[in-house]
Amino acid sequence: MTSAATTTPHQPWIDALQAELDALEAALLRGDAPGVEQASAAMQAVLQQAPRTPAFADPESPLRRDTQSAAHRFAQLRQAVLRSNAQNERAVASLLPQQSMQRQPTYGRMVKPSPLGGAGRGFLTA
Fold first, then answer.
1. Which single residue of 14, 35, 65, 126 has CA 20 to 30 Å from 92?
2. Taking Cα atoms as reference points, which of 17, 20, 120 lies closest to residue 65?
């Protein structure tokens, strides 16, 4: 059995994960907060459907490589959101000092741990 034949069953999951990352990136670029929430929730749903397979433990597995690539991309998107949020908060603080003290951050980490484990920690809310 070839390596390509063993990874084929997982390709639809990776494709769905990449599609949700594309949707999240597009919503972020549009500045569409509800779209970011929807794309992030959809991505969370895809992550919950991750295949249960020993291929994740194999360092040479295309599934593991593709998943790590998607995780890296998500981390980059998250960092872009956090940088943008910090800029927005500084702008609000300089223009409306009284209001900035009452505002909650638009994007941030989930304070309480997710019952879903690691996948829930990367969830963005708007």
1. 35
2. 17
- HEC secondary structure over the chain: CCHHHHHHHHHHHHHHHHHHHHHHHHHHHHCCHHHHHHHHHHHHHHHHCCCCCHHHHCCCCHHHHHHHHHHHHHHHHHHHHHHHHHHHHHHHHHHCHHHHCCCCCCCCCCCCCCCCHHHHHHCCCC
Residue with tokens 């609000």: 92
CA distance 48 to 36: 18
Under DSSP, is residue 125 helix (H, G, I), strand (E, B) or coil?
coil
Q: Cα angle vertex 42, ends 41, 46, to 5°? A: 115
Residue type (1 letter), 77: L
- pLDDT band per the 50, 70, 90 thresholds, residue 38: very high
Note the pLDDT tens digit of each residue in 68-118.
999 999 999 888 888 887 888 888 888 887 775 565 555 555 555 555 555
Instruction: Report the distance separating Cα 5 and Cα 18, nearest Å.
Output: 21
